[in-house]
Each structure stands twice: as C-alpha cells, then as structure tokens.
Batch of 2 targets.
Target 1
Amino acid sequence: MNLAALLKGKTVFITGASSGIGAHLARLCAGCGANVAQAARRIGELAALEADLTALGAAGVLSLRLDVADEESVRAAIAAARERFGALDVIVNNAGVASDAAAMDMSAAEFDLILGVNLRGAFLVAREAARGWRAEKRGGAIINIASVLGFRQASGVAAYAMSKAGIVQMTKTLALEWARHNIRVNALAPGYFDTAMNAEFFASEASKVLIKRIPMRRIGDPGDLDGPFLLLATEASRFMTGAVIPVDGGHLVSSL
Ligand SMILES: NC(=O)c1ccc[n+]([C@@H]2O[C@H](COP(=O)([O-])OP(=O)(O)OC[C@H]3O[C@@H](n4cnc5c(N)ncnc54)[C@H](OP(=O)(O)O)[C@@H]3O)[C@@H](O)[C@H]2O)c1
C-alpha cells in the first residue's frame, strides 16, 4: 500500500506549522501532493515556508494566522481553510508550548497558558472541524500530537505532562463520541525530538543522560514520524480510532 499516494489531493490542516514537527509534517503532506492549510501565530514564518511547500508538490497552500487559545481565531481559520479547499480531510492538532518552571513556582497564568494551548486549544480545533464534518455529512481524521509525557513523568514539566495526559484522554473520548459521524480521532505520542521547544535542553549535559535511558539510544528525527503519521492520516487506518501511537525509540518501555 502506498500511503503517500493515499494523501494526494486530500486537504490537511496543521496547527503550529511555523516550526519544528508541524513544519516537517506540512512538508511531508506537500510532498504527497496534498492541499496544505498551515496555521500558527507567526504568519511571517508560514509565508516563508510557502514556496518550499509548493516546490515539494503541494496541490495548494494556504497560510493562516491562528491562535488556538482564541475560540474566534480557531473558527475563522477553519472556515477560511474550508472556503479555500472546499472540504477538510485531516486535522493535525500539533500546536504546543512548554515550560520548565518547577510546579511550586509556576504561576496560575503560566499553567493556564500551557493547558489553554495544548489541551483546550486542541479541543477547540477538533470541535470546530467536527461540527463542520457533521454539517457536511462527511467524515474526517484528527491526529493529535500527544507526548510520552502524557504517560510518564519528569521533573519541571508538570503542566505540560498534565496537558498531554489530557490529550491522550481527549483522543479516546472524542473517538468514542464521534465514531458514529465517521470521524476518526487518533494520536501520535512522540518521544524527544530536537526542536525549538527543547533546543536549550539538548544543548546541555543533562540531555546526554536522558538519551542513555532511551532504549534506541537516540532522540527522534522528524522523519521518524512520517510512517506513523501517514498511517493515521489516510484510509490505511480506516478501522483505527482512539489509538495513541508512541514514536519514541522505546522510551515508554524503558526499564525502571
Ligand atoms: N519536540 C519534542 O521533543 C516533542 C515531543 C513530544 C511532543 N511534542 C509536541 O509536538 C508539537 C510541536 O512541538 P515542536 O517540538 O515542533 O515545538 P516548536 O518548534 O516550538 O513548535 C511549536 C509550534 O506551536 C505553535 N504554537 C504555539 N502556541 C500556539 C498558539 N497559541 N496557537 C497556534 N500555534 C501555536 C508555534 O507557532 P507560533 O509560535 O508561530 O504560533 C509552533 O509552530 C507540540 O504539541 C509538542 O508538545 C514535541
């Protein structure tokens, strides 16, 4: 089965596409010949990526300013993507923020920001897409980007880990509620990948200790996500919903 060919001509809406994993997934979808609606707050970064996506083979590219923490911004961005491409096939809930504040020192505002973007924001995007699919009487696929921290813990990432545990449960509960609407909701749970979010950490000695605990003894390369992503984005996973797939070099099965 050629997974890339299954995505050709489909429309994929990706949040947090201005850098890191989101930008990589936008390039992957472009290379498959999909329409790519790439959304984030930094519209300038998205504009700079447009030519690249077109050159890779995207059927169409649309850059959208989006703040997932803002309900009206979510509504407007999804409506604009629908208007441009007619219908959406895949939603990728990738936008995320992290913090290294110790739990005791974390302000309520910082906690709200992390949960507001990572969990509430992903819910708002999923809900808006699902309402549209229900009205159009068609289905779709949602891929949430969770994390190994949705299952395990580490110091200094309490709010982030809580938000990702929420994403795991959101994936399962929405999968249950929306299966009758032919909406599939699955998630990828990446291990550690070197992106802007944790560049400082991977420049430190502490990161070497962490890498030793990953059974495959390396962090992820964005391309490691390609196969699992294409599986969840296409008809290849037509009987899968509520699944959370770790892509982590075995980090979740590391020995205690
Ligand atoms: N890197 C890892 O090791 C790792 C591991 C597991 C899971 N993840 C998850 O992977 C996803 C992508 O992270 P990354 O590592 O690629 O980090 P990144 O390079 O910092 O990307 C984060 C993206 O989220 C966007 N974003 C942040 N707040 C937003 C908001 N309010 N509205 C819309 N977009 C927003 C940012 O764009 P703007 O600033 O332009 O809005 C950016 O494009 C996140 O959900 C993260 O939790 C990462």
Target 2
Amino acid sequence: MSIEPAIIIKDLRKEFLLSTSGANSLKTALLWWRRRKKVHLDVLKGISFEVNKGECVAVVGRNGAGKSTLLALMARVYKQTSGTIEIRGRLAPLLELGAGFHDDLTGLENIYFNAIILGLTREQVRERIDKIVEFSELGEHVHSPTRTFSSGMIARLGFSIAVHVDADILLVDEVLAVGDFEFEKKCYAKIDEFRAKGGTILVVSHNPTAVKRIADRCVWLHKGHIKMIGKPEDVIPVYESTSMTVD
Ligand SMILES: Nc1ncnc2c1ncn2[C@@H]1O[C@H](COP(=O)(O)OP(=O)(O)O)[C@@H](O)[C@H]1O
Ligand SMILES: [Mg+2]
C-alpha cells in the first residue's frame, strides 16, 4: 500500500493576544486603558508533521503544551497565526467536552444538529439515530437537555456521533478518559473498527498504555514545540521519565 498523507501540517504557529487588566477601580481602569498593552502568548511555535492515511497518531504532552489548540486549529475552531494545515478527507472532531453541543437542546436534537454539521443528511441521521443512541448508552436521557448531562454522558454522546458519521479522519481530544472503564474499552474497540476500515486518527491521550496500544506514532508536544516524534515505545518512556522533572 502506498503511503498517502491525510493531514499535512507545516510550520504551524498560533499566538493568542491577551489584554492585561488587573484593574479594580475606575481610576486604575482608566490608567490601564491608557497604558494597556497586549500580551502575546505563543502557544504553537512552528510545528510540522504529517499523518498518513490509515495511521493513528497520538499527541502527548503536559498541560498547556498546546495539544488542544492544535486540534482546535485543525477543526477550524481557531485560525492559525501562520503556517498551513491541509486535511485530505472528511473530518469528525471530538474536541474538549461538550464543544459543539447546545445546552438547551435535548440529546436527540444535538445528535441531529451535530451529525448534519458533520455532513450527514437528515435522512442519514434518521437511519442511524438508533445506533448512535444505543452506543451512547443514554437511554431515556436522550430526551433531556444536554445541560443536565454529566461529563461522562457528554463524552459518550460526542464519541458516538463522531464514529457514526462516516468520517475519514477522527480527531479526539482526551475525552475518552472521562467515561467509565467499560465505556473506554468500547471506544477503543470502535477506534479499532474505524482503523480497520482505513480511517485516520489523531488522538490526544494521557494514558500511556492506550497510546502504546493504539498509536502507530506519537508526537510529544512541549511548550509549543515538537520535542520528539516516533514510535510510542520510543517516545513514551522518554516522555514519562522527563515529565516529572522541572525544566
Ligand atoms: N482561547 C485562548 N485564549 C488565550 N489563551 C489560550 C486560549 N486557549 C488556550 N490558551 C493557552 O494556550 C496554552 C495551551 O493550551 P492548550 O492548547 O489547551 O494546552 P493543552 O491542551 O496541551 O493542555 C495555555 O497556556 C492556554 O492557557
Ligand atoms: Mg487540552
């Protein structure tokens, strides 16, 4: 089988602009307004890598490394400061908890809303709705607004939608960890099934055992740079041995 890229990321940079305030009175607020300056936060400092079709790549790194920002850029939630992201195929992003859900809509309404945004027709959603609800294990709760859902329920629903929309590429940001053990197992089985059909996955995970099991390659992100990229069995031990030390 020839190697074809599904995701090509070149020199990707993302900088957030923050306004510093700290004003607690009108006077300081006015002074601040005159002297305000923008603080630049370089979250991704020029990263490049590719994910091939059918490959599963895991992104690891400490909190604040820029993992979620990377996935959000790929899902077009944010726009990059510079650099390019090329996605070849249809993407189903499963970002941070509840992203994409409307709190006041019921679980069922959110399924329609999200699946249609992800490219299904109303008819296709109708055909799959039972499967989506069944996999999510929400039962009767699916008729309640998602604001009443626990984080586990939100994760189950989000995952179930993402794996039932026939995407070519799945982006998964840590959400699997909030479900219970049984559900996590079920998700990994579904991921195996998705891969067997040739699907491509980019997953952020804090579970080294899972990374070693499912990922072909591992990208270690550290303070906005790629510190190491390679086979999980090479990257994870180094990552684990240094993640305890302060740098
Ligand atoms: N919308 C935003 N505005 C400003 N700063 C942000 C925003 N999103 C993330 N950041 C900052 O970017 C850095 C990386 O965050 P994130 O990508 O969530 O890291 P990770 O997922 O690896 O923990 C953090 O310092 C975070 O505070
Ligand atoms: Mg994150």
